[in-house]
Amino acid sequence: MNFVHSAKVEDLKARVSAFMEAHVIPAEADYHRFVDSGKDRWAIPPVMEELKARARAEGLWNLWCPYPEHGAGLNNCDYAPLAEIMGRSIIGPEVFNCNAPDTGNMEVLIKYGTEAQKAKWLTPLLAGEIRSAFCMTEPAVASSDATNVEASILRDGDHYVINGRKWWATGAPDPRCRILIVMGKSDPAAERHRQQSMILVPFDTPGVTLVRPLNVFGADDAPHGHAEILFDNVRVPAENLLLGEGRGFEIAQGRLGPGRIHHCMRLIGAAQRALELMCDRVSARRAFGKPLADQGVVRQQIALSLCEIEQARLLALAAADKMDRLGNKDARDLIGMAKVVIPQMAQTVIDRAIQVHGAAGVSQDTFLAAAFAYARTIRIADGPDEVHQDALARQMLKARAAA
Amino acid sequence: MNFVHSAKVEDLKARVSAFMEAHVIPAEADYHRFVDSGKDRWAIPPVMEELKARARAEGLWNLWCPYPEHGAGLNNCDYAPLAEIMGRSIIGPEVFNCNAPDTGNMEVLIKYGTEAQKAKWLTPLLAGEIRSAFCMTEPAVASSDATNVEASILRDGDHYVINGRKWWATGAPDPRCRILIVMGKSDPAAERHRQQSMILVPFDTPGVTLVRPLNVFGADDAPHGHAEILFDNVRVPAENLLLGEGRGFEIAQGRLGPGRIHHCMRLIGAAQRALELMCDRVSARRAFGKPLADQGVVRQQIALSLCEIEQARLLALAAADKMDRLGNKDARDLIGMAKVVIPQMAQTVIDRAIQVHGAAGVSQDTFLAAAFAYARTIRIADGPDEVHQDALARQMLKARAAA
Amino acid sequence: MNFVHSAKVEDLKARVSAFMEAHVIPAEADYHRFVDSGKDRWAIPPVMEELKARARAEGLWNLWCPYPEHGAGLNNCDYAPLAEIMGRSIIGPEVFNCNAPDTGNMEVLIKYGTEAQKAKWLTPLLAGEIRSAFCMTEPAVASSDATNVEASILRDGDHYVINGRKWWATGAPDPRCRILIVMGKSDPAAERHRQQSMILVPFDTPGVTLVRPLNVFGADDAPHGHAEILFDNVRVPAENLLLGEGRGFEIAQGRLGPGRIHHCMRLIGAAQRALELMCDRVSARRAFGKPLADQGVVRQQIALSLCEIEQARLLALAAADKMDRLGNKDARDLIGMAKVVIPQMAQTVIDRAIQVHGAAGVSQDTFLAAAFAYARTIRIADGPDEVHQDALARQMLKARAAA
Amino acid sequence: MNFVHSAKVEDLKARVSAFMEAHVIPAEADYHRFVDSGKDRWAIPPVMEELKARARAEGLWNLWCPYPEHGAGLNNCDYAPLAEIMGRSIIGPEVFNCNAPDTGNMEVLIKYGTEAQKAKWLTPLLAGEIRSAFCMTEPAVASSDATNVEASILRDGDHYVINGRKWWATGAPDPRCRILIVMGKSDPAAERHRQQSMILVPFDTPGVTLVRPLNVFGADDAPHGHAEILFDNVRVPAENLLLGEGRGFEIAQGRLGPGRIHHCMRLIGAAQRALELMCDRVSARRAFGKPLADQGVVRQQIALSLCEIEQARLLALAAADKMDRLGNKDARDLIGMAKVVIPQMAQTVIDRAIQVHGAAGVSQDTFLAAAFAYARTIRIADGPDEVHQDALARQMLKARAAA
Q1: Which residue, B169, B384, D14, D42, shows the most beta carbons closer than 10 Å to its own?
Q2: ipTM beyond 0.95?
Q3: So which cofactors does this thing need (chains A, B, C, D) (predicted)?
Q4: What mean pLDDT comes out for the span D323-337?
């Protein structure tokens, strides 16, 4: 047992951290000013492409990608502290081409894509030239149960025809978004976890309509955002199918394991930055004749946050390590724990940071409100807390009964 | 001791409730569609003025106002259930001319205004013809300690000159907003609680600039919103001063007692509606082969919410009753308790309701996200939770030491 | 609506409070010293009988009893503040003949007993001459579901024969305990809630064995205590049956409503005293150069406790008022809420008080450890928290569905 | 980074675990029966000495001891999982000679003792032949601030004279207890952290009186227990002083780091066992027609417990690893976090396990009540939660200010 990162990882940590401090954090205000003041909220601020180019030039690119032929080739445990550092800014992960949902979509293409699919979509995604979205959640049914999916993906000769309504397709409003991965039912009569398929749908296919952007606590998260998308008799070539008919659930499982833990890693960084902002604020701000830092209640909140973040970090690392050693399936217990614990932890820590910032904390003047919304949504996305809790308990009860 | 409202109050409850169900709740979608789709987010949706006219015609107008010559003449305990019912919609209170900050500002004018001030500003406010804002909080200092205020209100012959930067002036971006009540220091050398004054500043006075609207978790709360306002050598006639130099703190105290409890009452209504939405959602939504309502964890959250709301309601009523019997000053313990307990309760209950709504819960499709933001900000506004907690404990420690 | 007690109740509050301060609190140490130092932990300290005689002489006797012919004739709402004051001491309720389980047992006899049963058992109970126990819970089955009861009460000619093992018969080890009310199944083939009967079993009936006293967190709660009792072919005359065969569940329901709310009232008093002890301790105790009361964290805990106690008190009063107005059945929602909220509140508040007392807080030197154990057990007794939560949620879901 | 124990540690884990299952857990009932039924609660159950002999014979002895010449020579990180396993039983640690306060006292002797002191006291302690106690806490002052200590240790020729009253000397009532380590002030005029000394006091020295055993929630924890001890002009030779005059605080710091983390490790084991008992109980117990395990609320509590235990375990390991790499002083942040988090976690988890056990959970029939009391007291012992929280926050604020 050993709680020290390798020299290689420590070096990457230092470089990513220096990049964040020197380039990303200072660019946040510009980025948001561009979005808020521009005519078009859905245009990409130029600073983002500049940051991406710089990061790529420095070799800080596709760090998430465990496949050496495609990216950094780091395992999950080594990537964890880097993802955490990127997560300190809402715009951080994209700078390093490490943002959701593109990472998950690239992983799907690497693991399950044909060479033709890879050439067409993976290559520009890895290059950060285009963006993608993942269309799974539907407004009409509870997506906590993935088998509820109602969209249809039906074979018709050399094509598949897709019908359905999806929402919370994050990144779909991004003007660079070109490709959608869509989950739907190809065979409602099949066994419950074999009814679903996944298919690649170019965004410009006729019948695909971006109905509206969705807000998170009133924020549209432009210029990436989240979209409601209507698929109305959308026809794509049969070769766009991923892996095979009836294997959609299998792909979803393969995609979600790393996806969940990546969100957790980023949220640790968001919580850590919130805590640091909290410390700085209470040292600088005075009320009733003394700095807020002299209030014991404030210090207790700092201490609790410190403890909760450190535990969350260890849990994410332990989950990552188990994924690296035993595979995602055997690590599902620790992944589940991380998913249950870390978004809630981040929400709580950021809420405390908001409180000491007063009205500034809920405003656009700090990163806290956006970070809070991010944490809050991850408690719902990729399976709500309650579903993961239930799965964890059932596993333990089953194991005890078998013992 | 008696936990039953009078027949008169029960009748008013029934009428306000019927009005809400018949007219206000159904108008919410229209209202927001107008704001979101219009060219100008800061225009008032026509439906609001229609609703106001109807409510006024039905005699459901200025129910908040305890002074019979100006309004309904109800005491706090009688008004509490009505404010709760209005609080079930974000747009509810304004319909009945019972919305913050106008109620607080009207109260200030009634209690501390001259006849001239009343004629000019109170009359149109009571008629719902104009709106007002309250300028106390400042970005540069911790407003949890009201004595930190740095804006200046300095006598210059027959005028006062106002300089300073305020923010979180709720309602200031509203196009109907005509008058600001501004708090600032008129004598920095005076005793700590006698340095401040309050003054009436017509919004169109030269030197008053609305710098920008402020967001709450990304929402601009248009068309009322919250503004940052710059006062740059703003000159107003000396007769605009309220009550007298050095009496600003006294007015603030007089204004905040009822203001706090009104917010609490409305938040109880918001929480109650969230709980009802939660019940309806879990009865209708299915996952893993059964309604969410069949999940024990969901039922536990309903039960906890029910208990917390009921206790909050009783606490608000007890505070209101004590205000009615003994005055706001003697009721400060129960007002403080309500202020500590109820916004946090509402945040918690609404957060649970969001969770069972999944992604819809954070979106613009339910009232939950806006209600959450409202509850969250009230934990900061009018004194953050921690300041009220501290005051409560000090009172108790002092009382025990004296016993 | 009116949050003020009547003059009559205020007078009783003052008298009970003065009696507690003058006689009961000062006797606590003597009482426990007698139990701990004596040869026999199960002998009654003489001071208890002295206190009882004095309370009875002062007319502070059977205050719990709503039936004027048997006791004070107060309704639940009027009794609530008195029960709270008695609950400030573990030995308080017995002094006024208001302690569980005797109050519940007396209520059963008053409501369901024959004249002969009353003459034999109710009269000496009301006089405080004998004590009683209630035998419902069984070690082998989950008593949260009352229909699980396995003990048998079978008719045999003019007698009933009782077999079974009961535990947590509070008060059974008390040397003055003469009579047991036993619940068991008289007809396992009947409808689920008609299988049970209740019967009076004199403690000295052959076949009744006190197997052992049970500990609560290591404390035996001598000299009352809690017993495991074996019923081995115990024969009692048929006229000992209460109300009728198959009506045990009905009696249990009738007994438990007031019983639950009485426990809640007492626990509010226990929590209130814990909070007062906490205040006094932190004012007197110094660490790091200042009183603990100067630590903001301590003050926050005081404030939170104050808020929680006040809300609990209001909830208990509201429940009591509803019982008085509409009957126990219609008040089951508020009784359920009180049962869910108040024991947990008391546990939390007392836990905080323990913490500021340091090691003294868990020891025999304060009333905190015993009060903690009392609160903790009431979260289990008369239906665990979770069962009441579930019932509350089901009621609300049903009401919404019907609306 | 690597979350796998070495083969050596895995082997020891397997052996300690097998020993616990085969010998210790089955002996618990006998052990407690002996204490409870015997004439003398303070006699040692023979089974304990048998278990010790067997453990020693199997080489499972002094595993806590990092000094190879005295014990197993394991570092903290390697010892952690073993201490956890021992902590699964209240009687577990002693079996392996790994129980507090003897481990801490042995550590003091090893690190600070003279050869003569070691020969006299360390040797029999390592052999498990005698027991020891640590006398630091005093009833009259807040021991959360160690400088409050009021006992005096004053030089008088070749002797020191000790006066003072101590309490919570754990293990002092044990009939095998021979030696006390006493902390007191040797020079009240010295710098604040140099006023204290520590000295060895044989229990049979004239003037040492065991005043009374102390209860924890009513339990006397016989036959080890906790004592109040009076030192009345107790004279011991000057060579009994440890390390040197004025170095008591330094020794306390050196002793408490490992002591705190050892308690945390044991409490993880206690919580883990509680969770397992909870699982087994809810699988076996039925209410309302199905096993408790079918209740979603119960499963949620299992899942939360699982997450909390896993995070606590990782935190303890991380702290242990930092102690091993950088020393106890540099690891004080992680030790502090572990001390804040883990006892509270254990209290919470065990409380949940109690709840599903119903009345059995608070009784003497499971290990839950004793485990709860253990967890609760450790939130107070060796510095209450609040003091460690405050220290953590101050460190972070200082580090941020320096950055």
Answers
A1: B169
A2: yes
A3: FAD
A4: 96
pLDDT mean by block of 10 residues, chain A; 403 residues: 96 98 97 89 97 98 97 97 98 98 97 97 98 96 87 98 98 98 96 96 98 96 97 98 96 85 97 98 95 97 98 98 95 97 98 97 96 97 94 97 89
State whether C300 and B390 contact (CB < 8 Å).
yes
In this prediction, the residues of chain C whose per-residue pLDDT falls under 50 are: none
| Contact check, Cβ <8 Å, B340/C307 | yes
Residue D119 in any domain: the answer is no
Domain boundary (A206, A223, A242) is at A242
Q: Is residue B328 part of a domain?
A: yes
- Indicate yes or no: CB of D299 within 8 angstroms of CB of A393: yes
Confidence of residue B160 (pLDDT cuts 50, 70, 90): very high
C29, C148: one domain = no
Same domain, yes or no, for C364 and C231? no
Between chains, do C340 and B307 touch, taking CB under 8 Å as contact?
A: yes
pLDDT for residue A254: 81
Residues C103 and C146 in one domain: no
Nearest to C309 by CA among C87, C138, C7, C31: C87
**Rg of chain A, C-alpha, whole Å:** 21
Q: Of C205, C222, C242, which residue constitutes the final position of a domain?
A: C242
Spatial distance between the Cα atoms of B235 and B222, rounded to a whole number of angstroms: 29
The residue among B279, B307, B333 with the most chain C CBs within 10 A of its CB, best to mutate, is B307
By CA distance, what is C305's nearest residue in B? B393
Instruction: Quote the mean pLDDT of chain B.
Output: 96
- Co-location of B13 and B67 in the same domain: yes
**Could you tell me the residue range of the domain that residue C71 belongs to?**
7-113
Partner residue opposite D293 with nearest CB, options A318, A340, A397: A397
* Chain B (217-256) residues lying within 8 Å, Cβ to Cβ, of chain A: 217-221
Are B54 and B69 contained in the same domain? yes
Cα separations in angstroms, D77 against A317, D183, D322: 17, 29, 9
Best mutation site among B136, B362, B374, B392 for testing chain A: the one with the most A CBs within 10 Å? B362
Burial A32-71 (b: 16+ CB within 10 A, else e): bebbeeeeebeebbebbeebbeebbeeebbbbbbbeeebb
Which pLDDT score is estimated for A258?
86
Calculate the CA dihedral of residues B358, B359, B365, B370 and round it to 10 degrees. 90
pTM for the structure as a whole: 0.97
| Within a domain: A53 | yes
Task: Chain A: list its partners (3+ Cβ pairs within 8 Å).
Answer: B, C, D
CA distance B396 to chain D (A): 21
In 3-state terms chain C splits into helix, strand, coil percentages (rounded to 5) of 55, 15, 30
**Nearest residue of A to residue D342, measured between CA atoms:** A307
Packed helices C25-37 and C46-57: angle between N→C axes, nearest 10 degrees? 150
Residue B275, in any domain of the structure:
yes
> D221: closest CA among D381, D366, D370?
D370
Residue D213 and residue D272 in one domain:
no
| D396/A302 Cβ within 8 A | yes
Q: A393 is written with which tokens?
A: 């308990």
Chain-chain contact of D400 with A279 (C-beta, under 8 angstroms) = yes
Angle at the Cα of C4 from the Cα atoms of C1 and C6, rounded to 5 degrees: 115
At D230, the pLDDT band (50, 70, 90 cuts) reads: very high
pLDDT, tens digit, for every residue of D289-305?
999 999 999 999 999 99
The helix (run of H) or strand (run of E) holding residue A270 is: helix A248-284
Looking at the 3D structure of chain D, how many domains does it have? 3
CATH code, B19: 1.10.540.10
Tell me, yes or no, whether A265 and A346 share the same domain: yes
For residue D143, what pLDDT band results from cuts at 50, 70 and 90? Answer: confident
Same domain, residue pair A360 and A329: yes
Q: What is the CATH number of the domain that holds B221?
A: 2.40.110.10
What pLDDT is attached to residue B90? Answer: 97
User: Cis link prior to B66 (omega < 30° from 0)?
Assistant: no
